[in-house]
Amino acid sequence: MPSEAQPIAPTASPLVAVGLMLCACACIAATSLMAKALGRGFGGEVLHPLQISAGRFGFALLALAPILAWARPSLRGAAWPDHVGRTLCGWAAVSTMFAAAAGMRLADATAISFLSPMVAMVLAIPLLGERVGRWRWGAAGAAFAGALVLIRPGAEAFQPIALVALASAGFMGMETILVKRLTGGRTSAGAARAGEPTLRILAINNGLGAAIAIAAAAFVWRWPSLEQWGLLAAIGTVMVTAQALFIRALRRGDASFVVPLFYATLIFAALYDLAIFGEVPTAWSAAGAAMIIGGAVVLAWRERVRAAG
Hints:
Elements: H1 14-39, H2 49-71, H3 80-103, H4 106-113, H5 116-128, H6 134-151, H7 161-182, E1 185-186, E2 192-193, H8 198-217, H9 226-252, H10 255-258, H11 265-277, H12 283-308
Antiparallel strand pairs: 1-2
Helix pairs in contact: 1-3, 1-9, 1-11, 2-3, 2-8, 2-9, 3-4, 3-7, 3-8, 4-7, 4-11, 4-12, 5-7, 6-12
C-alpha cells in the first residue's frame, strides 16, 4: 500500500478530494453516533464504552483481515514501544470519546476532541524537539478558551462528562505524536528517523488494539442483542472506511487544502444528534466550537507556512 506521504498523483482532483474528505467526516461522526446509541441502551441493555471500543477494534481487524492475508506485511524491524504506546493511547481515546458521546451532546464532545492538535503541539516540544512560535501558542490559547466556554467549569451548566471528552483529546494528542514517530520525522535529539510502511502500522494498531480492547471489555461484558451486534460491527467497518477515505482524499488533493475540511465532522455530528436524539446545540456550544476550530485552522496554516519555509 502506498504511503500517505507520497507525492500527489497527476490525476489529483481538488473536487474529488473534497468529496472524499466530507464522506470520511460523515463516517467518523456516524461512529460516534452509533456509540452514543449503544451507550444509551439502543436495542437492549446499556453497553459499557469499553465494550463498544472492543467492537470498534475487533470488527475493524476483521474488515482488514482479507487485505492483510493478501499483502502479508512484514513485522521485522517494527518500533514496538511506539506501536504499543500508540495503540494504548488510541484505545483510551476511543473509549473515553464513546463515553463522552453517550453522556453529552455529540457536537460538544466532537468539538472538545478537536483540542487534540493543540495537545500534540505541546507534546511535540519535548518529544520531537519542535519549536513553537507565538502564532501557534496563540492558536492553542484560543482553542483552550473555546474549551472553557464549552465546559464552563463552575457554572450551573457544567457537565462533568465533558472532562472525559477532554481526556479523549489528550490521548488523541499523544497518539498523534507516536504516529508521527512511526511515520518518520525527527527524534527529540533532532536526528532523522525512517518511517514504517502504512500497512504494517494499520496491522499492528488494529491487532494490538483488538487484543487490548477485548481483554478490557471482558470485565464489563454484557451479551449484546442482535441489533447491538449489528451496530458494533458497523462501528468497526465504518471506521476503517473513514480511514481509507481520508487516505484517498490526501492522495487526490494537497494536504494543506484537504485536512482543514476534517472539521466538517462537527457539522455532521450536530445534524445526526438533531435528527436522532433531537438535541439542539446551544449558543455557548456554537461559540466554543468556533473558537476551538478557529485555533485549529490557524495551527494548520502555521504548519503549512513552516513546511513551505
